[in-house]
Each structure stands twice: as C-alpha cells, then as structure tokens.
Design a protein that fits this description.
The structure holds two protein chains of two kinds.
Chain A lengths: L1 H31 L6 H6 L5 H10 L6 H13 L29 E2 L4 E2 H35 L5 H14 L3 H15 L17 H32 L2 H8 L4 H13 L1 H24 L5 H11 L2 H29 L6
Helix pairs in contact in A: 1-13, 5-6, 5-8, 5-11, 6-8, 7-8, 7-11, 8-10, 8-11, 9-10, 11-12, 11-13, 12-13
Chain B lengths: L8 H18 L4 H19 L36 H37 L1 H15 L3 H12 L3 H27 L3 H8 L4 H9 L4 H24 L11 H9 L7 H30 L1
Helix pairs in contact in B: 2-3, 2-11, 3-4, 3-6, 3-9, 4-6, 5-6, 6-9, 7-8, 9-10, 9-11, 10-11
The chains are: A mainly alpha, B mainly alpha.
C-alpha cells in the first residue's frame, strides 16, 4: 500500500520534472534572443565574411520564428531530426562520432567547436568531485554544530555557534577565496592558488582541491547548521522530551535517542536542497580557482553566447536540482510516515 | 494567531505604525541586531557623505602612486593597479550597492507580494499558473539563472534589478502565498468580505500587513543575498561597466594582483562581507524579536 502511494507520487513528480525542463529550456532559448550575434556568426567566427554568414544563416533557417527554432532544437535533442550543423554539404567539418541523430544530442558547441557531449561530461565529473568532497564535509560538520547549538537554546555554546554560522553565511565564496589565497598561498605558500587539476603545476591534485573545498564548506555549513539548530530547538521543546527527562533518562540519552532522531527529519530536506545551493557556489568557486568544471564552462558559454552548451548545462543542472528535491521528498515521506504529500 | 483587531482598517494602520516603532525601539534588546544596524548605518553614512569629505575622485589616477600602491599618508587605503584611490572607490562603490540592492529587493517584493496575494487569495487557475511559473524559476540554481540572464541582456543597473526581480520574486510570492492561505480563513477576512470590501482592498489592507512579520526578516536576508549577488556578478565580469567603482569588479581586478599587492583584492572583499554581515545580523536580531512576541 505505502510503496504504491510513493510510486504514484514519484511518477507525478517525474511528469512535473519534464514540464519544468521544457519550460526552463524554452525560457533560456528566449533569453538568449537578447544577446547580439547568432549561431551562424558564432560558428564561423569574427573573421568570416558577412556573405558567408548570411548563407549559413539561411541554410540553418535561423530566420524562422523562435518557437519553430525551439522545436527544431528539441527534435535534435530527442533524436527525431538530424543536427543541421553536421550537414556535410555545409563543409563545416562538424562531425559527432555518436552520429547525426541520437537521443540526447545536445548539438554542437560553437565555442569549443566540438560536440557538446564531448565537452560537458568531463567537466561535470570534475565538478562532481569538488561538490562531492564538499558535501561529505558539510553534512557531518553542520549536523554536529547544529545539534550542539540546538540542544540548549540560548546557552553560550548556542550563541557562539549561531553567530559563527551567520558570519560564515555572510562571506561569499569569492571573498573567502581571496582571504584564503592571501593567507595560504601568498602569505604562507602552503597551497596553490589555482586548481587546474593537471600535474604540471607541481602541486598534487589533493593540494589543489583543499582551498576550493574549504571555501564551499564554510559558506554552506553555516546555513545548514542553522537549519539543524532551529529544528533541534523545536524538538527539544516538545512534550515527549520532557517526558523522557522526567522518566529519568540522562541528558545524553534523551538527546541521542529521542531528540536527534526527530530533529533530523526537517534538515534532511534542507541538506538535499543544498545541492542546488552548492551548484551556485561551485560556479563562483570554480572561477576563483580556475577549476576546470561545469560552472566555469557555463559562464564561458554564457559570455560567448554558445546556446547549445548553455541549454545542455541548464538542463543538466535542473535535472540534478529537481531530482535531488524529489529524493528529499521521498526520503521525508519514508522517515516520517505521518506525511503524505 | 487570530487577529481580530485587524478588522478595523483605521486600527490596522495605527497598530502598524506603533508596532514598527515599537520594533525599532526594542531593537537595542538584541545585541546582534544592533551590531548589524551599526554596520549598515556606517556604510550608509559614508556613502551619503562621499561627495563632501574631500575624497579624490574615484576615477582619478595618481600615476606617482602606482609603483608604491600600499596604504600611505596620501592614500589611506592605498591605490589600485591604475593608481585610483582605494578608499574613495570603496565609498563610491557603497553608493552603488546601497542604491541598486534596495531598489532591486523592493521591486522584487512588489512583484512577489502581488503574485503571492493573487495566488493565495484567488486560488484555482490563478494560483496554478503563478505557482508553476515560480516552480520553474526556483528549480534553477540561482547563480546559473543570474549568469544566463545578465550575460544575455547585458550588465547595467537596470538589468541587474530586472534579474533580481525575476530570480527573487517567485520565492517571495511563495512565502506570501503560504501566509495568505492561512490568513484568508480567518474571521477578519470574512468580516471584510461581509462589508463588501473589494478584493484589492482585502488583499492590500487586510492581508498584506498581517504577513509582515516573516517578510521583514526575509527582506533583510534578501538584501544580504542581493549584495552578494551583485558582488558575484561583478567578480564574474558581469557587473557594472567600468570605470565606475563596483565592489565585485574591484575584487576581480584585485585578484589579478593578489600575489604582489593583496590589499587591492582584500579591501573590497572586506567591504562586501561587512555590509552583508550587517544585513544578516539585523535579520537575526529581528527574527529573535519576533519570536519573543
């Protein structure tokens, strides 16, 4: 019975995910209309003659109305039609080893002059490494800090942790990046100031990862710890905790056996929602440390106006964000049987 | 929770004034809130005084200072890589951020409150359309949305305001909608409906003032986020076009020199952090005061 309800819920949310993706990708498509230049000019580069650009413009049917071009892009993505840029008669020499027509064809990146699928996955892997390491530290740190602060509301420990949390969330990633670079790179010379993830720099990959991870952890832990704290405070004020204390359990036992388990339900959602927050932070952190990841690629693509790459990055970011949201909702339902969304 | 006094519009207004004043008067009870407001006010005062305290122009270049850009008797906080006075640029930069951020957040609030009130009060199709639109915007990682928007529509004060409205409006709408859903079941709304008040009147005079508690805290937090966002955009090279001073842009240019002259990047970072900290501490102080209500 219960799994059926959850299954129904998941299916409904997946349908909503697809609608969200369609709406968001159309939105991005529409926004890029404001930028100067078009796919033809960007494909051929700034030195191409206007005549050549005009010919490509016509061959790609770029004067079609926006919805028509959007549907065509969608057709390429779903593998219904061939990618027009790969047409050999255009003599662009754009070839995708995966073929001209396949499901998940994000098209050709006009910035890198490569198929988007050749560009995007390595970057995403690098970002996953960075975000994964940060996440693995954020969760335990913020849980411990939040529980310690929330178990005695208003205590000195609570106030210290809370104010420290506010300070952490007030230092954006680029600022803490600058502070740490000034101390550990310029001042002490212990760590490298950039993290290109290659071996040439003379620094190990591990050393290159230290600063980006710390920057992400500090900013996000402050926020999650405050969520855990308020949830913990809430639980500590409930009647069943008073009962547990009155029945003679030690404070330690009350907190570990009763409070923490109940206080975890709300932050569980918050922690998974951090993925979205983390993606935002990662974009900035990657810029600070010249890290070859997804966020920096998105920024470069946006500045260049590489619509195929922007769309691919947006869709992937959205899929990650929405599916973690779904995961958090399902987890919430499983943890707390009272809730049926 | 049930607030019957709000039935009478005159009483509502009177109470609003008194409670807003009372809130300000009680702010000194919160040490955190006081530190916050002091940080904010000191930047506001500096920004207001900027033209009258004899600072060099923020864009004037002192070529003689470039070889020795550190803090000195002439340039108290040193100069940047082009010989422009750091102190002057910081203070003039404060003018930018302290006008753009509040205007952007207020505009986002006008849009968000309108949408939230409509969605919560009317429900049905209005709610469905507004909520689905909000869902789409809110599922974007915030910075991704900002980068795509600003990179395409171009960086300017006006466009930053537009981007903040589009990115924050839906979040505000969602909060207001939730509050309205709860409030509209209460007696004072039914009483207003019986008096045949117009829907606009009920939404603006009866419902909106009763949402203010959570919204005031959220407003302060959003000012902080927006300050960070403007900083990030500047840092990513999507800030206000040069030469006018913009804290984020100053950090970006300063990081290029960080191995030689760290003060060029550190100073604007400290400025951003102190202002954001001010907003966040104030928000925390206000939240505490509301909890004690």
């Amino acid at each position: 019975m219960v799994p059926l309800v959850i299954l129904h819920f998941i299916l409904k949310r997946l349908a909503a995910l697809i609608l969200t993706l369609l709406a968001a990708s159309f939105l991005v498509f529409a926004v890029t209309e404001f930028a100067p230049g078009d796919v033809a000019r960007k494909t051929l580069g700034p030195y191409a003659l206007q005549d050549q650009v005009d010919i490509l413009y016509r061959r790609l049917h770029l004067n079609d109305p926006l919805p028509v071009r959007y549907v065509r892009w969608l057709g390429v993505l779903l593998g219904v039609i061939e990618d027009p840029l790969q047409d050999p008669t255009l003599k662009l020499d754009f070839t995708d080893p995966r073929g001209k027509r396949y499901f998940g064809n994000f098209g050709y990146s006009t910035l890198y002059k490569l198929p988007v699928n050749d560009v995007i996955w390595d970057r995403l892997g690098n970002t996953a490494l960075l975000a994964g390491l940060a996440f693995a530290l954020i969760v335990p740190l913020s849980l411990i800090a939040g529980i310690l602060a929330g178990m005695r509301e208003g205590s000195r420990l609570d106030r210290t942790i809370s104010v420290f949390g506010i300070v952490c969330t007030s230092v954006p990633e680029f600022a803490s990046g600058v502070f740490f670079t000034a101390i550990f790179v310029v001042g002490l010379g212990w760590l490298p100031g950039t993290s290109p993830l290659n071996h040439n720099a003379g620094w190990s990959i591990a050393a290159q990862l230290v600063l980006p991870v710390i920057v992400l952890v500090l900013y996000d832990s402050g926020y999650v710890a405050r969520m855990v704290r308020s949830s913990m405070v809430d639980v500590m004020n409930r009647p069943f905790i008073r009962t547990a204390i009155l029945k003679g359990l030690s404070r330690r036992e009350v907190i570990l056996r009763h409070a923490v388990r109940n206080a975890m339900i709300a932050p569980f959602t918050v922690i998974l929602l951090q993925i979205n927050f983390l993606i935002s932070g990662v974009v900035v952190t990657e810029m600070v440390f010249a890290y070859p990841g997804f966020g920096r690629m998105l920024l470069e693509a946006s500045l260049f106006g590489d619509i195929a790459l922007i769309e691919a990055a947006t869709l992937i970011a959205l899929i990650i964000a929405v599916s973690t949201q779904l995961l958090s909702d399902v987890g919430y339902m499983l943890l707390n049987p009272q809730i049926r969304l | 929770m049930v607030d019957l006094r709000a039935t009478d519009p005159i009483a509502t207004e009177a109470r609003d004034e008194s409670s807003a004043l009372a809130l300000l008067r009680r702010l000194p009870q919160s040490r955190v809130g006081m530190i916050g407001i002091l940080l904010i006010l000191s930047w506001v005062v500096l920004a207001l005084l900027a033209p009258w305290v004899g600072l060099p122009s923020p864009n004037a270049q002192d070529y003689a200072a470039i070889p020795r850009p550190q803090p000195s008797a002439v340039h108290w906080l040193g100069v940047d890589q082009l010989g422009r006075d750091e102190l002057s640029r910081l203070i003039w930069g404060a003018r930018t951020v302290l006008t753009v951020a509040p205007i952007a957040v207020i505009a986002a609030y006008i849009a968000g409150c309108t949408l939230g009130l409509l969605a919560g009060y009317y429900g049905g199709w209005t709610d469905a359309v507004i909520s689905r639109f909000s869902d789409v915007i809110l599922s974007f990682p915030v910075i991704v949305l900002y980068v795509i928007l600003i990179a395409n529509i171009g960086p300017s004060r006006f466009n930053i305001v537009v981007a903040v409205v589009l990115a924050s409006g839906p979040g505000i709408a969602r909060i207001v909608r939730g509050l309205v859903l709860e409030l509209k079941e209460q007696d004072f709304v039914a009483a207003a409906q019986l008096r045949r008040e117009t829907s606009a009147y009920i939404m603006i005079v009866e419902l909106l003032p009763n949402c203010r508690g959570p919204l005031i805290t959220d407003f302060c937090l959003r000012l902080g986020y927006t300050t960070i966002t403007i900083g990030i955009l500047g840092f990513l090279g999507l800030g206000l076009p040069p030469p006018d001073p913009d804290w984020g842009g100053m950090v970006q240019q300063g990081t290029a020199m960080i191995t030689v002259w760290p003060h060029m990047a550190l100073l604007p970072c400290l400025a951003i952090v102190s202002l954001v900290l001010g907003f966040n501490l104030l928000a925390d102080g206000l939240r505490e005061l509301f909890l004690n209500d």
